# Entry
Amino acid sequence: MIPRFFQAAACTALTLLSGGLAASASEDWNAFRGAGGSGVAPASRPPTALGEPAWKTPVAPGLASPVLASGHLFLTALDEGHLTTCAFDAASGQALWKRSTPSVPLEKVHASGSPAASTPVADAERVYVYFGSFGLICYDHQGLEQWQKPLPSPQSLYGMSTSLIAYRDTLILVLDNDANLPGSQLSQSKIIAVHKATGATLWETPRPLLRSGWSTPTLWSHDGLEELIVLGSGRLTSYEPSTGLEKWFAPGFSRETIAQPVCGQGLLFAAAAQLGGVADAQPDPEPFWQALLPFDADRDGAIARREMTPEFTFPLRPELPVGHPGFGLPLPEDPAARKQRQSEIFGRIDKNQDGQWSRAEFLASLNFDRGQPKLLAIRPGGVGELHETHIAWEVNRNIPEIPSPVFYQNRLYLLRSGGLLSCLDAATGTLLYTERLGAPGQYSASPVIAGGHLYLLSNLGVVSVVKVGDTFQRVHQRDLGEAAYVTPAFDETTLFIRTQTQLLAFRAAPAPPADGK
# Structure
């Protein structure tokens, strides 16, 4: 869908813990979905019931997730038209510094997006930031600029949101681009790797078959080897992370890929919904018709041409309200051009030209042949195009559009819009449960795990806490009272949530002394 909020991340398997690949206890949550991008904070024990926040501090708008390193929280924002990087004290929420890039024209983004959508990466010395409008910039923890590397803005359907990942002394960034047409003078899709200390380019690999995408790459460690995994438009590709040399690819994914691949139990998992965010290979068409009924002003059970309001369009995501930027086919902003486009949409479905859409006429027009929703589990050892020998299993139902899967204790969790949580056996793909959270609406933040619980954040700002396991057990739900689109972060005792205007810290009470005194 509208991949602004597309928060994708990295997954490096550094430590095998609880049957899953996760970050070691000593590592900060220093990248999107934590160190290694697993989405799991194994040593964290945040509260499972959210009371009043330990602190809250205002933040400018943006869609980058917060990251932590050495007691600092970092995030990016669009602050009064300026691309900014912000640092906060994790213990108190105090703002430490704010730095802006040189002034540049801002890339075109979707109405639900932001030019500050890519999540930074931090280490013990520096924080590394990517803005699609500017390029790369590096600061130390005191906010002093260390280097910058301006890059051309890729041509993208919705704006850039892929995030950096770190590999040894290298930063890796995927720059997929819609300017891959013959004779184009713009840069083609590619991956670049730069030195963390200097920003110097170490290698660059073209991706001439790939168009714009919003997924962040993943590092997959297995059998003493490491692979750079990139999910892009139509295919999943593996590269050698030290050189960028392509190793294998798996075709069959949809045009718009957003979620990051994850790994565990010796397998790699990659998921993408059907174009338009459809989660199932055989979706129920009725919700699409129901989504049109707000336009039925005279309540006669049909949609007449005279009932085309300025918000009228063909529904793509029936779970969203009319007027939401992601509800239906995009329309021009110019009123005359918008009306013309609406008329074209209407005419294509009104086959009998009677000036209205009946339910039967509309349902007969639905065509979900837009790339099958797909979740693949891949075995290691592939070369060239992957075939069945390296596909452990495939699932085509309940596939999220934006949130990435999370692997933990031999289970894979999927969170899709509408507030549906699915749990699968990671070894076989067998569905263990699909349950509604009781918090409907769209979901952009990826599920994360700490203290044996899933933390699930809806775009409406409702936090659901669910116990991990083979059966569904929701233990808490809290409405933050404000929209929230980005993946939370953890330290040892704290859950950090970025809402539309605030950064919130929910901290567990200190454990009592061992002697009870």
